[in-house]
Hints:
Blueprint: E1 11-13, H1 29-33, H2 37-42, E2 43-48, E3 51-56, E4 62-66, H3 71-82, E5 87-91, E6 99-104, E7 107-112, E8 115-122, H4 142-145, E9 151-154, E10 161-165, E11 174-177, E12 186-192, E13 195-197
Antiparallel strand pairs: 1-13, 2-3, 3-4, 5-6, 6-7, 7-8, 8-12, 9-10, 10-11, 11-12
Amino acid sequence: MSVLAIGITGCSAESKKAEPTAQVSGLDQSAIAKPDATTVAQIVIALDGEGLRLVNAETGSTRLLAFGTDRVATETVLAAQLGPYDGRSSNDECGAGPIDFSNFGDFTVNFQEGLFVGWFLRNGDRNATLTTMSGIGIGTKRSDMAKSVVFDMYDESSIGTEFHTGGDGPGGFSGLLESDAADARITDLWAGTNCIFR
């Protein structure tokens, strides 16, 4: 199976582009800039086709860290939960235009013009346990994913056994399976604007 790479030349981008928005939906900006210990202890990050969900582990309430959120605010929220980013990089040759990346282990967050536009999660030892609200993540079997979401397979994909949720509308996420078998496991997940070598 081909390996996906972020931040390399010869990339193409997902067709969806985030609409700029200046805030985290329903979330106080001051709480993002300076999260206190109580907030940090209660929040879990969930993958989402519209950005990332901030889930209160005690109450179950959620708030959307939406595509279009400012880079500093996005990195601050993620650093509070995942630890500081490992590094930053950029690629000027992506199909959607220049993209900047912040890497948190196996989880990469994408930015254009200072705004959060996409994310990518690959198999690895750090942050590979991140999942969607329905529990879909790295290692989830295709048959189990089918129990909670509707997805389409891309039979002509050049990067492996590729799928997409959400039909043609916004808010879906994509990924790769290790094979086309019913019990094949997910190896990569992404949403929003990405720079993927094909």
